[in-house]
Amino acid sequence: MAKLDAGSTLQRLQNRYRLVVMNDDTYEEVVTFRLSRMSVYIMLSTIFVLLTGLTVALIVFTPLKYYIPGYGNAGIGREYRQLKYVTDSLEKQVNYQVQYIDGLKKVLGGNADLKLDTTQFQVPKEEISND
What is the gyration radius of the CA atoms in the chain, in angstroms? Predict the structure, then answer.
């Protein structure tokens, strides 16, 4: 395989070419461009950089940024955490109420497994004094 030297590569980038746009019916030249590979590369790179810059500016300076996952202001995150705490506490309260209602249903239905306290207390008698 032939080795390319830097001089020939640079020369190929600087070679001039002509781009002619012609009318197909009359063979009249409508537009003529003198281009080189380097100028085409620079033009395409400039267009790419401009489009990328415009896209980033559109996202950064407009409300479109709120549609990016993970992007938002601190207030929204704080509100989210507060709502999560309230939701968790409400969920606990509902679970406690469900347990209470199930316990009442068992007691009223006669299905409760109650363990009666059969321990007897020894209450000391008070001494009555005849004063």
Answer: 43
Predicted TM-score (pTM) of this structure: 0.48
Mean pLDDT of 40-48: 96
Query: Which residues are bridge partners to 34 per DSSP?
Result: 18
* Tokens encoding 50: 């401009």
Strands (E), 1-131: 16-22, 29-36
- Is pLDDT above 60 for 2? no
Q: For residue 112, which of 120, 100, 104 has the smallest C-alpha distance? A: 104
Given the DSSP bridges, would you call strands 16-22 and 29-36 parallel, antiparallel or unpaired? Answer: antiparallel
How is the chain split into domains, by residue range? 13-108
Supply the DSSP string of 66-113, one letter for each residue: GGSTT---HHHHHHHHHHHHHHHHHHHHHHHHHHHHHHHHHHHHT---
Residues constituting the chain: 131
Paired with 17 in beta bridges are 35
Alpha-carbon span 65 to 48, nearest angstrom? 21
C-alpha span between 116 and 100 (Å, rounded): 20
